[in-house]
Write a structure and sequence with these properties.
mainly alpha, two-stranded parallel sheet, 11 strands
Length: 480
């Protein structure tokens, strides 16, 4: 049987990291086995629908390379691929399930259901439907239908015994049928509930493997009872552990945690994000951590998914993103870095040289503006920055260095990094001091910062001779 997986997001305007990981795993499983990856839009909850969200889903999948074989935008043999366009299909199967004895018409109005819930809550009982309509006679049902009384269709859960399912990650999960609620399958407006539409669509679209978050573990017994009631073959279930912010908090939009788009806007590269997400709760075995999408396809085995929640390690993400940045060509990096460079540098500076300075030294593109904000104008700084124990320099030594360095800089005729290096190291030899004793004060005077993407020589070359002399004179004034 050909492997068919699906990614079925709701268009709520937010591509959560956990959702993207689900899409990635479904894609990897399908492609590893030469199968099909299907995109289905689950928009039955119209209250949460956000305009533009479907386009965001398309754009994210395209940018990350998770190209679907079937979907609303490209069609396929199992459409429509948007749930709101499949309404008649759900109505048909809901009524068919009633005939099979797996569901029933419920005519209870809102007032009765509210009273039932109030009584149960006051009695500290589980809030679930009491089955009032499940034993109505055929005649009573027919009479109510003819009278035009609004109804929903509920799933008829077994009252005794147990229901189980096998999950590839969590093993066998068993529940007591007595705790299951007779959930609504078809609402009074003819729209299906999420759980019912999922089962119908997965069966009709011949989905062989269902990959989703572990929050759906509790719902899966209800799904399996639907499969049994229809006499359909069940898919393989793969429930993934949640992605956690820390040991106690889940990642969530409510807490301001990053979506995929947020991460890209913060300066992370899409390939690094995808690589990082793949390893959130899944191990390919071994120590290797950098994978292309093609290499992930080859390596993917769902048995490597861990039961334990995955912790979103931003330090690791930053490191991984830095590794991807280092692998970029100079031209690729310049194109990626230019918007961030221009946030801080408004002058006619040499952007290519600035990018070259940054290329092997940053982890996140959004770090760039703060690292180069000294280029256009020297920031205010405290003379305490000239003191550095390791470099064996303080304010007095720095003053002496800068006074001797200015004529050295003025005398350079070959304004290249090599020329600047030769001149400053000649001064170091003349003074008989360590390299840092000269280079630290010069770098501080040129940048006004403790941390810069390059050393004194690279910064001097970037700023130009006249600007260097001007800034070193300011340093002398501060230290005098």
């Amino acid at each position: 049987m050909k492997v068919r997986t699906r990614f079925a997001p709701s268009p709520t305007g937010y591509m959560h990291i956990g959702n993207l990981r689900t899409a990635l795993y479904a894609y990897l499983l399908a492609k590893h086995n030469g199968g099909d990856f299907i995109l289905r839009i689950e928009d039955t909850d119209r209250e949460r629908y956000v305009d533009g969200a479907v386009d965001l889903i398309y754009r994210t999948l395209k940018e990350t390379g998770l190209i679907h074989d079937e979907g609303p935008d490209i069609g396929g043999d199992y459409g429509p691929y948007v749930q709101s366009e499949r309404r008649d299909i759900y109505v048909k199967y809901a009524h068919e399930l009633v005939k099979k004895g797996g569901a029933y018409y419920c005519f209870c109005d809102k007032e009765r259901l509210d009273n039932l819930r109030s009584i149960q809550e006051a009695s500290k009982l589980p809030t679930k439907y009491d089955g009032y309509c499940r034993n109505l006679s055929d005649e009573e049902v027919e009479e109510k239908l003819k009278s035009g009384i609004p109804y929903v269709i509920r799933q008829k859960m077994p009252i005794t015994g147990t229901t189980y399912f096998d999950d590839m990650i969590y093993g066998r999960i068993t529940v007591e049928n007595s705790v299951l609620d007779d959930n609504i399958l078809l609402k009074s407006d003819g729209m299906p509930t999420y759980n019912f539409a999922n089962v119908i669509d997965d069966h009709l679209m011949e989905i062989t493997h269902v990959i989703r978050g572990s929050e759906y573990l509790s719902s899966t017994p209800k799904y399996n009872l639907l499969y049994d009631a229809f006499g359909w073959e069940k898919p393989v279930y793969i429930h993934c552990p949640p992605v956690m912010k820390n040991a106690t908090e889940k990642l969530s939009k409510r807490n301001g945690d990053a979506s995929y788009e947020d991460m890209i806007a913060k300066g992370y590269l899409k390939d690094a994000v995808l690589n990082f997400i793949a390893l959130l709760g899944w191990s390919p075995g071994g120590d290797r951590e950098i994978f292309t999408l093609e290499e992930l396809i080859e390596a993917f085995d769902p048995n490597g998914i861990n039961k334990s929640p995955a912790i979103f390690d931003s330090v690791k993400l930053n490191w991984m993103n830095g590794e991807y940045i280092k692998k970029m060509s100079e031209e690729e990096f310049l194109n990626a870095a230019l918007p961030y460079i221009k946030q801080s540098v408004k002058s006619d500076a040499n952007f290519a040289e600035i990018a070259k300075l940054l290329h092997q030294r940053i982890e996140i593109l959004s770090d760039i503006p703060e690292q180069i904000d000294f280029i256009d104008a020297l920031p205010e700084y405290n003379i305490e920055m000239y003191t550095h124990k390791k470099m064996k320099t303080d304010a007095a030594i720095s003053l002496e260095v800068l006074k001797k360095a200015i004529p050295v800089i003025e005398g350079i005729t070959d304004w290249t990094e090599e020329g600047i290096h030769e001149a400053l190291f000649a001064l170091i030899a003349e003074m008989g001091v360590k390299n840092g004793t000269v280079l630290w004060p010069v770098r501080t005077a040129l940048s006004g910062k403790q941390f810069t993407p390059g050393g004194a020589i690279e910064i001097a070359y970037l700023l130009g001779k006249e600007e260097c002399i001007s800034r070193m004179k300011i340093g002398i004034e501060k230290l005098s």
